[in-house]
Amino acid sequence: MDRFAWLRRIAALDPAHPTEAEEIHKITAAIEFPWDVRQALGLALFRTYAVPSVGELLARTGEFTAHTQKRYDDTVLLLGATVDRGFDDPDSRTAIRRMNQMHRRYGIGNDDMLYVLSTFVVTPLRWLDEFGWRRLHPHERRATVTHYRALGRRMGIRDMPEDEAGFAALMDGVEAERFAHTSGGREVADATLALLATFPPFSALPAALVRRSTTCLMDPHLLRALHYPVPTRAERAATRAGMRLRAAVERRMSPRTTPITVDDLPEVRSYPDGFDLARLGTFAETVRPSSAAAGPSRR
């Protein structure tokens, strides 16, 4: 299997067809660029913290500060189910039902959910444009939009854009209008930064270096909203050079033959004995997963 075999498969599929779009998105997110997509989605989380209604809500729940690892893991596992197994799989339906239950519990409005969805579409595409080991095929860009629109429909999100340009305009517009500093948003961002420093391979580096390197990848308006120091030009250039070097090395590696699934991720550490999608997240009774009914077991 040569390095561009998956790209040829992507080119042969139709991103407008729901099933084929799922296959394209899985190849992109789980075979060709799994590490990059995870890093980009991690940065997308920081963007949501800078929207006051989102950052303050996350701080009030205490989940992202008192139980940061678990909250991160639950998010990865619930969203990952839809990529790993497709929307029609019973596990994916369980994951989406769990997300919808949590959103209803906290009364999260359509505008906030639509903005968060836009970050999941736009941030990975922009990351891969800058740091991917190859250029994205147009089918991959369209399939990303198709995937998240399908997720949005299942979550009852209204007024979704039709294409990447629409999602980008929505995300940029919300950030220009609504980004602002809040103590809650900063608190959640700090907790997430501290967690990222414990993930391999970053755990081998000084935590301060990981934190600074991560902020080098954030947009200036995001840094201002979170009240993080703006890195120097030299720091930004060095960080980006390191990312591009990594991409150059990966380009010369043998292609993956199987997807990287959420079960394979070393940073997901809350459930060494397995997890149950129906019991992830928070619950009305105790804000703990133990009060939920049992569901399909994973791992």
Mean pLDDT, to the nearest integer, reads 93
Q: What is the approximate shape?
A: globular
Q: Segments where pLDDT lies below 50 for 5+ residues? A: 285-297
Number of beta-strand segments: 2
Assembly state (oligomeric) = single chain
Task: Describe it.
- The chain has 14 helices and 2 strands; from the N terminus they run ααααααααααααααββ.
- By secondary structure, it is mainly α.
What attributes characterize this protein structure?
globular; 299 residues; mainly alpha; 2 strands; 14 helices; single chain; two-stranded antiparallel ribbon
Task: Show the helix and strand layout.
Layout: H1 5-12, H2 18-32, H3 34-49, H4 52-61, H5 63-66, H6 68-85, H7 90-106, H8 110-131, H9 138-154, H10 164-178, H11 183-196, H12 207-216, H13 220-226, H14 233-251, E1 275-276, E2 297-298
Antiparallel strand pairs: 1-2
Task: Summarize this structure briefly.
This protein is mostly helical and about 300 residues long. Helices cover about 65% and strands about 0% of the residues. Mean pLDDT is about 95; it is low at about 285-295.
